[in-house]
């Protein structure tokens, strides 16, 4: 597609679970597009995807495909980003990378627009999108941190299968059907790790997301820990995480416990969250109202509820944070970064 004004944009991994949502976000937000390229592997080249009422042909991701591209949104896995981000930069594109390939590179800004929008000004051609579980947590913590200063975070996650891609969604559906029909349950995808061993996700909870590291934490848990410190620019905040995969398709839920430096009133926490950009407070226990994955699915906001003071620590707060992992956790955060780039004049219209 070609328009008179706007930006030349490419989506890499456009046929995947996140890529599909990136296209949906560009469409819904009416992102100013002069042209759009949808890229994936050679397997999908020639397929069509619908966009703004047009069929766009999927192209193979090659270095030349980035010729003329100004903004490239990547969500095709770390190895694809490692290979093609440098090629896209060479051709003048700013890359917004949803994989973990560049997140911890000290030269690469790791950005959640509600939290550290200024970091993107220092980009050298690539801006990293944090891990889905990190994004929703830091968006909820930001207004509280600004006011009360965080000392320690302990988070337990309840993560949807879509975070592991389209294959994991299909596995949950197939396993659920097989289990209910009394048929053999095939285990082929989860947990995604370096071992050929898999577990049933249907009617189960798997306390492993990504591979285990020498310190006993999983890579997903360490991503939450390292990325949170980097985004807040504070290595001193103590962070600890337990990440669990549950049989939900869309929407990660998190039980977040945070200890602050300063005393807080729950009423102030409530009003800070009510006024925080991108955050919606749903906290009405009398009416059994709190955030849930099914309600958060297909929405771009981060939902927070179950606010309560810890019973023993005078400055400890518990909360429940839910968001669509494919949207704020991935595609929306990436498109939001693109919107900020455009708004701040960091990229010129061609
Ligand atoms: P394809 O559909 O052609 O395999 P998910 O996270 O849902 O599994 O999606 C992964 C995305 O990354 C898909 O769009 C997939 O395209 C794309 N992808 C996988 N391998 C490559 C590759 N080598 N080059 C470009 N895109 C790739």
Using brief descriptors, characterize the structure shown:
Rossmann fold; alpha/beta; 6-stranded mixed sheet; binds adenosine-2'-5'-diphosphate; 350 residues; Dihydrodipicolinate Reductase, domain 2; 2 domains; single chain; 7-stranded mixed sheet
Gist?
With 350 residues, the protein is α/β, with parallel strands linked by helices.
Account of the protein in words:
Strand 1 (7-12), helix 1 (17-28) and strand 2 form a beta-alpha-beta unit. The two termini are 15 Å apart. The strands form two sheets. The protein has a seven-stranded mixed sheet with strand order 3-4-2-1-5-6-7, sandwiched between helices. Strands 9-8-10-13-12-11 form a six-stranded mixed sheet. It has eight helices and 13 strands. The chain is of the alpha/beta class and 350 residues long. Residues 13-17, 19, 40-41, 43-44, 61, 76-77, 80, 165-167 line the site of adenosine-2'-5'-diphosphate. The site of adenosine-2'-5'-diphosphate has 17 residues, from helix 1 and helix 4.
- Output mean pLDDT: 97
The shape, in one word, is globular
CATH fold node name of the largest domain: Dihydrodipicolinate Reductase, domain 2
- Number of strand elements: 13
N to C succession of SSEs? EHEEEEHEEHEHHEEHEHEEH
CATH architecture of the largest domain: 2-Layer Sandwich
Give me the secondary-structure category. alpha/beta
Side-by-side strand order of the widest sheet:
3-4-2-1-5-6-7
Percent of residues in helical segments? 25-40%
* Count of separate structural domains: 2
Estimate what percentage of residues fall within beta strands: 15-25%
What's the CATH C level of the largest domain? Alpha Beta
Rounded Rg: 20 Å
Task: Report the total helices.
Answer: 8
CATH superfamily membership of the largest domain, which one?
Dihydrodipicolinate Reductase, domain 2
Q: End-to-end distance, in Å?
A: 15 Å
Which ligands occur here? adenosine-2'-5'-diphosphate
Low-confidence stretches: none
Report on the biggest sheet.
7 strands, mixed
């Amino acid at each position: 597609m070609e328009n008179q004004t706007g930006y030349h944009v490419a989506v890499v991994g456009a046929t995947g679970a996140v890529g599909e949502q990136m296209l949906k976000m560009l469409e819904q937000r009416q992102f100013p597009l002069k042209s759009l390229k949808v890229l994936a592997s050679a397997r999908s080249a020639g397929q069509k995807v619908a966009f703004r009422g047009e069929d766009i042909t999927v192209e193979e991701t090659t270095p030349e495909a980035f010729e003329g591209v100004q903004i490239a949104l990547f969500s095709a896995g770390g190895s694809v980003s490692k290979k093609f981000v440098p090629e896209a930069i060479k051709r003048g594109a700013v890359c917004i990378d949803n994989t973990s390939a560049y997140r911890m590179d000290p030269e690469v800004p790791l950005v959640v627009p509600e939290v550290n929008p200024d970091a993107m000004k220092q980009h050298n051609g690539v801006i990293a999108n944090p891990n889905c579980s990190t994004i929703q947590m830091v968006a909820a913590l930001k207004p509280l941190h600004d006011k009360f200063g965080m000392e320690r975070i302990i988070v337990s996650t309840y993560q949807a299968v879509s975070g592991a891609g389209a294959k994991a969604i299909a596995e949950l559906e197939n396993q659920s059907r097989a289990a209910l029909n009394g048929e053999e349950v095939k285990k082929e995808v989860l947990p995604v790790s370096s071992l050929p061993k898999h577990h049933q996700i249907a009617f189960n909870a798997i306390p492993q997301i990504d591979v285990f590291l020498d310190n006993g934490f999983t890579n997903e848990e360490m991503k939450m820990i390292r990325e949170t410190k980097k985004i807040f620019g504070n290595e001193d905040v103590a962070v600890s995480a337990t990440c669990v995969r549950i049989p939900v398709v869309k929407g990660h839920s998190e039980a977040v416990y945070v200890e602050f430096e300063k005393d807080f009133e729950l009423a102030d926490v409530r009003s800070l969250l009510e006024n925080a950009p991108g955050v919606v407070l749903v906290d009405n226990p009398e009416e059994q109202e709190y955030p849930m994955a099914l309600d958060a699915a297909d929405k771009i906001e981060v939902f927070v509820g179950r606010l309560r003071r810890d019973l023993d620590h005078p400055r400890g707060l518990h909360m429940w944070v839910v968001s669509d992992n494919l949207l704020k956790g991935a595609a929306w955060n990436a498109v939001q970064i693109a919107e900020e780039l455009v708004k701040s004049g960091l990229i010129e219209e061609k």
